[in-house]
Design brief:
It is a single chain. This protein has three domains: about 5-190, Four Helix Bundle (Hemerythrin (Met), subunit A) (Up-down Bundle); about 220-315, Orthogonal Bundle (Helix Hairpins); about 320-470, Heat Shock Protein 90, CATH 3.30.565. About 70% of the residues lie in helices and about 10% in strands. It has helices spanning about 5-65, 70-90, 95-120, 130-205, 220-280, 285-315, 325-335, 360-380, 410, 430-440; strands at about 320-325, 345-350, 355-360, 385-390, 395-400, 445-450, 455-465. The strands form two sheets. Strands 2-4-5-7-6 form a five-stranded mixed sheet, covered by helices on one side. A two-stranded antiparallel sheet has the order 1-3. Helix 1 runs antiparallel to helix 2 (about 70-90), helix 3 packs antiparallel against helix 4 and helix 4 (about 130-205) runs parallel beside helix 5. The protein is rod-shaped, with a radius of gyration of 54 Å.
């Protein structure tokens, strides 16, 4: 069975209604035209009856006064009546009227002949008692009755047309009421009821109850709305889980910031103690001197890492200025180095003295997200991450290339969408690349991606050079 959309059903209903009312209007129009023609016919029929009555009046006067002028006038009326009858018979479309017209024409012809005989009769004195006179009167009476029957038939036919018009009007009103009832039932069942279900579903969604709607096999817009709403509910549930995970990571970041603050004191104590011991034991034991120096260097390294972690986690306003790309990238690589497994080689080839106009913390955050994304893309397989940079007259182009799994064109179209992630639930929030895109855009730069499945991924970041350090 052909499945129609609601829009197609409505259009089909409008077409059917239009055809029905068009046909009804056409029939009514034709009936009115026919009624007008019949009214004109009955007027002509009345004229015919009047002509025949005039013939009978002249007949009586002629028989009374024997005036030859009346005879001539009577023949003129008969000729006019015959012409009028001939005109009417050309418009008769019913067999009864045609037969009556033929009978009347025959009577008119016979009556004319009787008048001719009466005119030529030598027995003027015995006209009143002759058979010719009787026959003439009988023929005239038959002519009157036939003309009246034609007029009466026309009147009854007009009444039948009028009844037909009233019946059509009644049927059209009944049909219109039926169409309205069907339309109301259709709207209530196929539109209003599903809309109430959608309204109830949105109310449940606002309360946090994500219950999918049952989808009927109707293949219409309502089914599409239900499917879209179910998809939205599924995405909302997924986004909620991702937001929970993001909140956990935010809490971990706050906790890490507090731990970093607490680590500063023992690191400072270790550094001070190491310096005192190194000064007291300097030159006494070469191995001890070397070990003290190593302890001091690792303490300073740990302090730099804690300092970088504190700077990364600290909330700050956007405050751009001239910063060196190499230094920011080195700080970002130091912070993510603990998350880089031994199977991944992390390298950087950034020339010195490339300055951009940027917020150091925000740009560091973008680089960290890209490096972590590259590490996760490689996974447990051996691979490498290489960072390079070059300058032109206006911009610097930073390239972060990994040998990971790569991406399909469909995934590449969505990687900067918020909450979009190809990782399993709990492995990512889908916000990392979205944040990177926002940071780069904030710096009036651009970011693009080149990737193929199983061939790795390259991110190209273009940032404007600081005006004081352009080529």
């Amino acid at each position: 069975m052909l499945k129609l959309h609601i829009r197609q059903k409505i259009i089909l209903g409008i077409v059917i209604i239009s055809i029905c009312f068009g046909c009804l209007g056409f029939i009514s129009y034709m009936n009115t035209i026919q009624l007008e023609d019949e009214v004109q016919l009955i007027e002509r029929s009345d004229d015919l009856s009047n002509q025949i009555l005039e013939v009978r009046r002249i007949e009586k006067n002629y028989l009374l006064y024997h005036d030859p002028a009346l005879f001539t006038l009577g023949l003129d009326y008969i000729n006019k009546a015959d012409s009028l009858l001939q005109e009417l018979m050309g418009k008769f479309n019913k067999l009864d009227k045609i037969q009556s017209g033929k009978k009347l024409k025959a009577r008119l012809t016979h009556y004319r002949g009787l008048l001719e005989q009466l005119k030529n009769s030598p027995e003027k004195s015995t006209l009143m008692d002759s058979d010719l006179n009787t026959h003439l009167r009988e023929t005239g009476q038959a002519m009157v009755e036939l003309s009246k029957s034609i007029s009466n038939y026309q009147r009854s036919y007009i009444l039948s047309i009028n009844r037909t018009l009233r019946s059509n009007l009644g049927l059209s009103m009944i049909g219109f009421a039926g169409v309205i009832a069907c339309l109301v039932a259709f709207l209530s069942t196929n539109i209003l009821k599903p809309l109430r279900e959608v309204q109830e579903a949105t109310r449940r969604i606002s309360k946090g109850t994500f219950t999918p709607l049952p989808i009927k096999n109707s293949h219409d817009e309502i089914q599409q709305v239900f499917a879209a709403l179910n998809s939205m509910v599924e995405q909302l549930a997924k986004r909620r889980r991702q937001l929970v995970q993001a909140q956990k990571l935010s809490s971990i970041g706050t906790l890490s910031s507090g731990i970093a603050h607490q680590l500063n004191n023992p690191l400072n104590n270790i550094s001070t103690s190491c310096q005192i011991l190194e000064e007291n034991q300097k030159g006494k034991d070469a191995l001890a001197d070397r070990m003290m120096h190593n302890i001091m260097q690792e303490t300073l390294r740990a302090r730099d890492i804690v300092k970088g972690l504190l700077e990364f986690s600290r909330e700050s306003e956007y405050s751009p200025g001239p910063v060196e790309i190499g230094m920011i990238m080195k700080s970002a690589m130091d912070l993510v180095s603990s998350q880089v497994p031994s199977n991944i080689a992390l390298s950087s080839e950034i020339p010195e003295h490339i300055f951009v106009h940027a917020d150091r913390r925000k740009l560091q955050e973008a680089f960290i997200n890209l490096l972590i994304n590259a590490v996760q893309a490689i996974g447990e397989q051996p691979g490498s991450i290489n960072v390079t940079a070059r300058m032109d007259s206006e911009n610097t182009i930073i390239r972060i290339c990994d040998t990971g799994q790569g991406m399909s064109p469909e995934i590449m179209e969505r990687i900067f969408d918020p909450f979009f992630s190809t990782k399993e639930i709990g492995q990512g929030t889908g916000l990392g690349l979205y944040i990177v895109y926002g940071i780069i855009e904030k710096h009036q730069g651009s970011i693009r991606t080149e990737s193929k499945p199983n061939e790795g991924t390259s991110f190209y970041i273009t940032l404007p050079l600081d005006k004081e350090h352009k080529l």
